[in-house]
Amino acid sequence: MSDAVPILKIGSTLLVSIQVDLQDDTALQLQEDLAERITRTGARGVVIDISGLEIVDSFIGRMLASVAAISRVLDAQTVVVGMRPAVAITMVELGLSLGGVRTALDVERGLAMLAPAHESAESVLLAAAAERESR
Amino acid sequence: MTTAPSATATERLEVRADSDVVRVRQLVRTVAQQARLSLVDQTKLVTAASELARNTLVYGGGGEVEVELVADGRRSGVRAVFSDEGPGIADLDLALTDGWTSGNGLGLGLSGSRRLVEQFSIDTAPGAGTRVEIVTWSR
Amino acid sequence: MTAVAPSALAQTLVDHAETVRPAWLDAAVDELRGRTTRGELEREQSDIYQALVDGLQAGGTDLQSEAFDQLRGILADVSAARARLGFTPRETAVGVFALKEGLYGLAGSDDTMTRVLPLLRLVDELGLFTFEAFAAARESIISEQAEQLLELSTPVVKLWEGIVAVPLVGTLDSARTQVVMEKLLNTLVETGSTQAIIDITGVPAVDTQVAQHLLRTVVAARLMGAECTISGIRPQIAQTVVALGIEFGDIRTRATLADALVDALREGRRSHTEVTA
C-alpha cells in the first residue's frame, strides 16, 4: 500500500493534485477519502489535478468518473484539470470517456469554474487575489 | 551499418499485486524511451500494458510480464508478453468486444489495448491460461 | 594462396604510403572535381588510411570486426555528410574505390599477389559499406523531410487570446490527422487556450475515416478542458456527412472560420468556458 493522496481544502472546494503514478488500491482509497471529506466539510466542489499523470487507464478513468458521480450525489461539482495531450489522445483511442465529468485546462480555470453563483466571502477574496497575481 | 542484435536482454517481472502493475508500467515506459517511441506512442503502449497487466493480475490470478527492446534493422520497438496460468478465455471474440467484461471492469481492457498498439496477439484456451503479446514500433 | 597476417598488410600500407596515398588522392580529385577541395579530400583520406592501418594492426580481418570500429565510424560519417550535401552514390563511393588506384601502383613489387589482393578485397568491402551508409543516410533524410512536410502542412495559429485554429488543406489520412491532433492539443496547453477551431475549407472530401479522426480530436480536446469547433464545411461535404450517416453529435460546426471565431469569442466572454468530457 503506497501513501495516500493528500486532499487540500480551499474555501468550499477540495483540491487533489495527483503527482505520482497511482496504484489501483491508492486510487480506490482516494475515492473513499474524497467522499468522506465532502460530507465532513460540506465542500461544494472538487478539483482533481491530473497534470502529473503520465497515463489514465480504464481503472483511473473509472475512478475519476465515480468521484464525479459520488460528489454529484453529495451536491458537489467535480472538475478534472490538466490532462496531458498524449493522455487525452490515448483515452479517446482506448474508448474511454469520463462520462460527463467537467474538465478544465488547469487548476486556476478549474477553480474559477466552481465559483458558486452566490459567492462566499472567501471565494470573492480568492478570485481577487488570483486576478492580482495574474496581472 | 553494424549488425544490430535483434533484441537486448529481456526484462521479466512478476505480477502478483497492485504495486506490480505500477512496476510494469514503469518498465515499459523505460524500454519505450530506449526504443525512441514518440510521446503519444509511449503513452498508448504504457496504457495498454497497464490494462493487460491488470488483466493478468485480476483475471489470470497473477502471472508474469516480459518486456524487451526489439529491432528489425531500420526501426526499434518494444515487445511485451503477458502470461498467466489462470482460467483462460472461453469466448475470445466476446472478450475482444468493447464493453464486455467478466469482472467488474469497463470491458475495455482487451479490446481497448488492442487499439493502442501496432501488433496484438492472444493465445488462450479454457483452463490453459492466457498469453497476450503486444508490439509497438518507432516511426 | 596463404593468408597474410593483418599486421603484415598494415606494414605494406605503411611502407608504401608514399606511393599509394598520392595516387589515391589524384584519382579521387579527378572524379570529384568541383564537388570538394583537394585539401579536404586529403584530410579525409588521411583519416581513413590511418584508421585502416590501425584496424589491420589490431588484427582486423574483415570490416565487421571490432578492430575496424573506428574505420566504420569514419566511413559512415563521410557518407552521411555526402548524402546531406547532395552527392550522388557514385561520387560518394568513388572516394573509397579510388584507393584501388593507389594499390594498383604496387603491382610489380615482390609481394603483389599475397599482399595487394587481400587489400583490394578489403577496399571492396569499404566501398560496399560506404554505399550502405549512404543509402541509410538518404533514407533518414527522406523520412525527416516527410515529417517536416507534415509539420509544415498543419500550422496551428493563435487567432485571439485563448483561441487557436488549424486550417487543414488537402487530403487527411490517419498519419496526418495524428500529427494535427497532437499539435493542436499541445498548442492548447502551451497557449492556455480553451477554444480550438479546425477549419476544413481546404479538405476536398470527408469520408467516415476522416470524420472519425475529427471527432476524436474534438473529444480529446474536451478531455483536456477545451472546446473544439469544426468550420468550413462546404455544402457537398455536409451532404456526404449526412449521406454516410456520420453522427457529429453535439460537436459544434460552423459554415465559415469567421463564424467560428465570432462564436469562440462570444464563448470566451462568458468568462470561463464550460466543458464536459
CATH architecture of the largest domain in chain C: Orthogonal Bundle
What's the helix-strand series of chain A? EEHEHEHEHH
The separation of the N and C termini of chain A measures 43 Å
Integer tally of domains of chain C: 2
Class by helix and strand content of chain A?
A: alpha/beta
Main beta-sheet strand count, sense and barrel state of chain A: 5 strands, mixed
3D structure, described in words:
The complex is a heterotrimer of chains A (135), B (139) and C (277). With 135 residues, chain A is α/β, with parallel strands linked by helices. In chain A, 49% of the residues lie in helices and 16% in strands. Chain A has one domain (7-134): Transcription Regulator spoIIAA. The mean pLDDT of chain A is 88. Chain A has helices at 24-41, 58-73, 85-94, 107-114, 121-134; strands at 7-10, 13-17, 45-49, 77-81, 102-104. In chain A, β4 (77-81), α3 and β5 (102-104) form a beta-alpha-beta unit. Helix content of chain B is 35%, strand content 27%. The radius of gyration of chain B is 15 Å and the shape is globular. With 277 residues, chain C is α/β, with parallel strands linked by helices. Chain C has helices at 6-15, 17-31, 38-57, 69-84, 89-97, 99-104, 112-152, 174-191, 208-224, 235-243, 257-269, and strands spanning 157-160, 163-169, 195-202, 227-231, 252-254, 275-276. Chain C has a 5-stranded mixed β-sheet, with helices on both faces. Chains in contact: A-B, A-C, B-C. The A-B interface holds A 2, 21-26, 54-59, 61-62, 84-87, 89-90, 93-96 and B 18-19, 21-22, 25-26, 29, 39-40, 42-44, 46-47, 50-51, 54, 98, 105-106, 108-109, 111-113, 115-116.
Please outline what is shown here.
The complex is a heterotrimer of chains A (135), B (139) and C (277). Chain A is of the alpha/beta class and 135 residues long. Chain A contains 5 helices and 5 strands, in the order E-E-H-E-H-E-H-E-H-H.
Q: What are the defining features of this structure?
A:
heterotrimer; A: 135 residues; alpha/beta; Transcription Regulator spoIIAA; 5-stranded mixed sheet; 5 strands; 49% helix; globular; B: 139 residues; alpha+beta; Heat Shock Protein 90; 5-stranded antiparallel sheet; 4 helices; 35% helix
